[in-house]
């Protein structure tokens, strides 16, 4: 969305890519206009838009006191069009909605044709897909190009000639800092028949390989949301593909087509109707339900050690920028089926908007029981790991600077949740925090390419006292790779530096959606996906009462 000065109507036509006012998507316009600032053309006053009116100007009413002589007068309902006509302002498009520029409980209506966008507004909303693509394209630079831009900027700014820097004894080197780094060997992946799979440059080929622990699928179905395809052919290809990977898939129990009448319904209505149709066609819950949608998943397995260990990944998803009324979504994933570290279960909760710390890890009830996230994940670990309790907990999360709160609040909740489940000493805990929002880049000193996959730097540019390191686990074929900055806040398990860095690298190789190493460990990515997915199912509506007009 591009915010340019001018009439609000022109702004909507441009950003919705339509030519006629009748083609404007008003629900979408409501989201686009919220919190933007406009100037009224009839009085040059500036206002902030909070929403759109439910009715057009010709029918939208509000109460107004009308004086008659010396008496105080009475309150009557008047339309926005009639009000402006009494002020000698005649509307050309009274069929358009009004801008509500008042307060939530006291609306103030301004006809949309009398409002102009104000220039130089700070844009606080999420970018569109096209804008994000353009931003990535413009900011994508090869390592050598980025190095040249940085060094040229330092030279052109001439920081050494700045009197303030000189008086403070600050000197900025004109060359990049040289640090010693090393490239960790890629972890050995284990696939079917205990066959080793060796990655090369952060990637591996899964052809002609079987799954480590394939399952048997007996009751499943295919759901077709009005796609033009041969579902029988899809089922045959899926069965053959599963056989090559070691999965025994029986024939589908049912092939469910969407009704023709449902094609024009809203997406949520279509899903609900299809769900009811699936329940009617199957004798029980299916083991596997295939919707005709493009998605690819690949699976590889890795084993951690001999001590029962649960790995937790945490992330918090907030509402779109500028939306402070939407609750945040906290998601935590926990590993299952120990000793594997490639299978996870997610648990999500809502919490106060814009709060980074997860406050529902331990949630005691009045009856003394716990309804928190950690209890749910610990029970799942216990039931899928031969009734063994975790003796070690490795916690991966994302944080910008609230390290002390992670230790004081979240770790404390984990310990309380564990103790609430029974007797026994608390497990040993290792806390690792990943940071992606930083400006550190790693370059090869004598090569134009990105640093190799598995590059780690733990000296020179790290904290002098705290335990942190930079790692590029992934291969960067495009642009300049950005390393992930890992902070080890707590290590009761007692990993050596090599062991911990190898573990972090290994967790970057078990992401089920790709046969490549990823930039951040898989548990954090899964938690991010779970939080983002849950936010799609939550719908928040805006309410308003009382009225006025500008």
TrEMBL record:
Domain named Piwi: residues: 306-539
PROSITE patterns: PAZ (PS50821), PIWI (PS50822)
Highest taxon, organism lineage: Eukaryota
GO molecular function: RNA binding
InterPro entries, per database record: ArgoL2 (IPR032472), PAZ_dom (IPR003100), PAZ_dom_sf (IPR036085), Piwi (IPR003165), RNaseH-like_sf (IPR012337), RNaseH_sf (IPR036397)
SMART domains linked to this entry: Piwi
Domain PAZ: 7-119
UniProt feature coiled coil, ranges: none
Family that this chain belongs to: Belongs to the argonaute family. Ago subfamily.
UniProt protein name: Uncharacterized protein
């Amino acid at each position: 969305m591009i915010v340019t000065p001018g009439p609000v109507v022109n702004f909507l036509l441009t950003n919705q890519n339509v030519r006629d006012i009748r083609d404007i998507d008003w629900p979408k316009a409501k989201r686009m206009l919220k919190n933007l600032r406009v100037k009224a053309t009839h009085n040059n006053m500036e206002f902030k838009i909070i929403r759109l009116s439910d009715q057009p100007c010709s029918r939208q009413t509000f109460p107004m006191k009308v004086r008659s002589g010396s008496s105080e007068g009475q309150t009557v309902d008047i339309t926005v069009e009639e009000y402006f006509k009494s002020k000698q302002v005649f509307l050309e498009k009274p069929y358009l909605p009004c801008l509500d520029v008042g307060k939530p409980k006291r609306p103030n209506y301004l006809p949309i044709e009398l409002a102009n966008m104000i220039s130089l507004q700070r844009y606080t909303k999420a970018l569109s897909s096209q804008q994000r693509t353009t931003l990535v394209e413009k900011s994508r630079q090869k390592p050598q190009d980025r190095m040249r831009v940085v060094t040229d900027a330092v030279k052109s700014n001439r920081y050494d000639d700045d009197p303030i820097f000189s008086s403070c004894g600050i000197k900025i080197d004109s060359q990049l800092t040289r640090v010693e780094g090393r490239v960790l060997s890629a972890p050995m992946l284990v696939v079917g028949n205990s066959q080793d799979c060796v990655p090369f440059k952060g990637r591996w080929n899964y052809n002609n390989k079987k799954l480590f622990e394939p399952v048997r699928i007996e009751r499943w179905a295919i759901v077709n949301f009005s796609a033009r395809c041969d579902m029988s052919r899809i089922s045959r290809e899926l069965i053959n593909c599963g056989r090559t990977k070691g999965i025994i898939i029986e024939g589908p129990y049912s092939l469910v087509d969407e009704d023709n009448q449902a094609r024009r319904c809203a997406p949520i209505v279509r899903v609900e109707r299809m769900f009811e149709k699936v329940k009617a066609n199957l004798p029980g819950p299916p083991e596997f339900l295939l919707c005709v949608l493009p998605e690819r998943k690949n699976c590889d397995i890795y084993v951690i050690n001999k001590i029962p260990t649960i790995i937790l990944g945490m992330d918090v998803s907030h509402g779109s920028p500028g939306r402070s009324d939407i609750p945040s979504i906290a998601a935590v994933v926990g590993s299952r089926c120990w000793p594997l570290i490639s299978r996870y279960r997610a648990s999500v909760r809502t919490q106060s908007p814009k709060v980074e710390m997860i406050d529902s890890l331990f949630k005691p009830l009045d009856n003394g029981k716990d309804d928190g996230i950690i209890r749910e994940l610990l029970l799942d670990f216990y039931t899928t790991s031969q009734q063994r309790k975790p003796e070690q907990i490795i916690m991966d999360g994302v944080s910008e600077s609230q390290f002390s709160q992670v230790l004081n609040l979240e770790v404390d909740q984990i310990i309380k949740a564990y103790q609430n489940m029974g007797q026994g000493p608390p497990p040993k805990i290792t806390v690792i925090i990943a940071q992606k929002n930083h400006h550190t880049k790693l370059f090869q000193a004598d090569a134009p390419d990105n640093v190799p996959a598995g590059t780690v730097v733990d000296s020179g540019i790290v904290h002098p006292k705290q335990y942190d390191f930079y790692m590029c686990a992934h291969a960067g074929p495009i642009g300049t790779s950005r390393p992930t900055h890992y902070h080890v806040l707590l290590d009761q398990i007692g990993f050596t530096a090599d062991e911990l860095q190898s573990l972090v690298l290994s967790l970057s190789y078990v992401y089920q959606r790709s046969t490549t190493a990823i930039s951040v460990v898989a548990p954090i990515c899964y938690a991010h996906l779970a939080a983002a997915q849950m936010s799609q199912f939550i719908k928040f509506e805006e309410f308003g009462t009382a009225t006025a007009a500008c």
